Amino acid sequence: MVFIPRQEPFVCEHCGAVVEPLSKGTYRNHCPHCLWSKHVDLEGPGDRRSSCGALMRPVGLDQRAKKGFVLIHRCERCAKEIANKTAPDDDLSAFPPEGCP
Question: Is residue 48 part of a domain?
Fold first, then answer.
């Protein structure tokens, strides 16, 4: 798996928030306000090779020894699950999202 670091601003397709890149430390791949993501990577973080493109619902929050808190996202279209490290400015009170099982 190849990791391609990307520091890109984006507009969240779930809540409409303008999301700026993190200033240091890690790379952002989900909205810090609603915690949703988008299925854009196929084989590894940053590859942007997925043709799916659907929104990814945050369905789990886990604490891992080496990574700290990790969000589990599930694609609304193809059901792929991806674990994503949380960022310092993530609003973890937004978990679980409304309607989340």
Answer: yes
Give the Cα separation of 13 and 79 in Å (integer). 18
Distances (CA, A) of 20 to 9, 58, 88: 5, 19, 13
Kindly report the pTM of this predicted structure: 0.84
What proportion of the chain, given as a percentage, has pLDDT over 90?
A: 43
The number of domains in the chain is: 1
CA–CA distance, 19 with 11 (Å, rounded to integer): 6
Note whether residue 98 is domain-resident.
no
Closest to 51 measured CA to CA, from 59, 61, 43, 41 = 41
* Tokens coding 16: 């409409």
Where in the sequence is the domain holding 62, given as residue range(s)?
10-87
Tens digits of per-residue pLDDT, 43-85?
A: 887 788 889 999 999 999 998 877 788 999 999 999 999 988 8
Confidence at residue 23, expressed as pLDDT on a 0 to 100 scale: 80
SS3 93: helix
Task: Look at residue 66 and tell me if it is in a domain.
Answer: yes
